Amino acid sequence: MWAFARWRGEVMHIVIAGSGIAGITLAETLRKLAPAFSVTVVTRETHGYYSRPMLSHGFSREDVESRIIVKDFAALRETGIRLYQGTDVLALQPDAKTLTVQAAAAGTETLSYDRLVLATGSEAVVPAAFRPEKGTVRVVNSLDDLIGLRRLRQQILAAGRTPRWALIGGGLIGCEVAADLARVGDSVVLYHAQTRLMERQLSEADSSRLLTVLTGQGITVCLPVAVAGVDCGDQGYAVQRDTGTETGFDGVIVACGFRPRIELAVQAGLSTGRGIRVDHFLTTSHPDIHAIGDVAECADGSLYAYVMPVRHQAIWLAGYLAGTVTAPWQVPAFKPRAKVHGFEPA
Ligand SMILES: Cc1cc2nc3c(=O)[nH]c(=O)nc-3n(C[C@H](O)[C@H](O)[C@H](O)COP(=O)(O)OP(=O)(O)OC[C@H]3O[C@@H](n4cnc5c(N)ncnc54)[C@H](O)[C@@H]3O)c2cc1C
């Protein structure tokens, strides 16, 4: 029970990189379990701690930009968490137990830790072929992404037009976003490279019912269509597909999966695969550094990139660091649920 030993002797400094559900659940749970610990969160976010799953319903709710905030940073500071917002973690120095951070327009700063937890999450994958020379494709991965998309919609509506979107990817996020845009009256063409929608999460029968629901909402679903490229010209965006080029889109939204943010770990020499590799104790290849959430590749080689297991990891790690838990982390039973308007799987 190393944690208890350190806890009794001196203050334990825990630094957490990232303020998503993994980082904030860990920080809040640590404050309750081990009030004597010093807990620091470093995050590039500026809006507060927000609900990422709500992003895909971010068009049909007028007040989403405020409602999506689960807790503002000031409220978290009041609980005793030291929080650096708008601050990037630039590099790790595992042997010195330090990290280099930088706030916008400020110089770099070095923070030291006893234990570091990487909870830096994941980013959306945008294949090179979908990055046009002019213009830029959109993703729905962060609150800033959503704010940018909502602004673009408002500009199109203000010009008296109905927004027309190409959505590439018919997985969980693509289907949820398509249905949400359709709900607010936008025109949506959804391209998916597989023969059925959400093939990873749904049975064939449920995929087929989902297709009926989406087409019933006025969405054009193109299956199986592997988009070859995206262009941007005077007439807006164009999508290249097997049968030719489809033009006249106001925007292209890419929902082609996610990639754990492993760059910091790679640069620091930690073991990585698809994610940052951790053992059964959510510890990386360096004993003082843990990884949880979307960024972690667990001992069974899996990424558990859903709210329920991510939260479970954070609570487990808080107990482990506080010394109240000694048994290894075990994957909880969970079932991902799609939040597509009008659709319930059987
Ligand atoms: C649109 C959408 C809908 C979803 N819907 C569902 C759903 O319905 N159900 C479900 O279970 N899951 C859903 N998910 C997945 C779920 O949201 C994630 O599994 C979960 O949010 C992961 O949390 P996290 O804390 O690991 O990572 P994140 O939420 O990605 O948080 C990582 C944080 O680290 C910060 N960060 C990254 N790098 C740095 C750096 N170098 N320096 C400082 N800060 C940094 C980021 O800014 C971010 O705040 C959805 C995801 C998306 C994108």
What does this structure look like?
The protein is an alpha/beta fold. It folds into two domains: 2-123 and 258-322, FAD/NAD(P)-binding domain (3-Layer(bba) Sandwich), CATH 3.50.50.60; 126-254, FAD/NAD(P)-binding domain (3-Layer(bba) Sandwich). The chain has helices at residues 2-9, 21-33, 64-67, 73-78, 143-158, 172-183, 204-216, 263-267, 307-322, and strands at 13-17, 38-42, 49-50, 69-71, 82-84, 87-93, 98-103, 108-112, 115-118, 122-124, 164-168, 187-191, 220-222, 229-233, 236-241, 244-249, 251-254, 258-260, 276-277, 289-291, 296-297. The strands form seven sheets. It has a five-stranded parallel β-sheet with strand order 5-2-1-9-20. Strand 1 (13-17), helix 2 (21-33) and strand 2 (38-42) form a beta-alpha-beta unit. It is globular. The relative contact order is 0.17. Residues 1-8 have low confidence and may be disordered. Flavin-adenine dinucleotide is lined by residues 17-23, 42-45, 52-53, 55-56, 88-89, 119-122, 140-141, 173, 261, 293-294, 305-308, 310, 336, 339.
Descriptive labels:
346 residues; alpha/beta; FAD/NAD(P)-binding domain; 2 domains; 5-stranded parallel beta sheet; 4-stranded parallel beta sheet; 9 helices; 21 strands; globular; binds flavin-adenine dinucleotide
Quick take:
It contains nine helices and 21 strands.
The bound ligands are: flavin-adenine dinucleotide
Helix fraction by DSSP (H/I, runs of at least 4)? 25-40%
Biggest beta sheet summary: 5 strands, parallel
Low-confidence stretches: 1-8
Average pLDDT, to the nearest integer?
A: 95
Question: What proportion strand?
Answer: 25-35%
In the CATH hierarchy, what is the superfamily of the largest domain?
A: FAD/NAD(P)-binding domain
- Quick one: overall form? globular
Structural class: alpha/beta
State the total count of DSSP E strands: 21
CATH topology-level name of the largest domain? FAD/NAD(P)-binding domain
Order of helices and strands: HEHEEHEHEEEEEEHEHEHEEEEEEHEEEH
* Assembly type: single chain
Summed up, the helix count is 9
Count of discrete domains? 2
Strand order of the largest sheet: 5-2-1-9-20
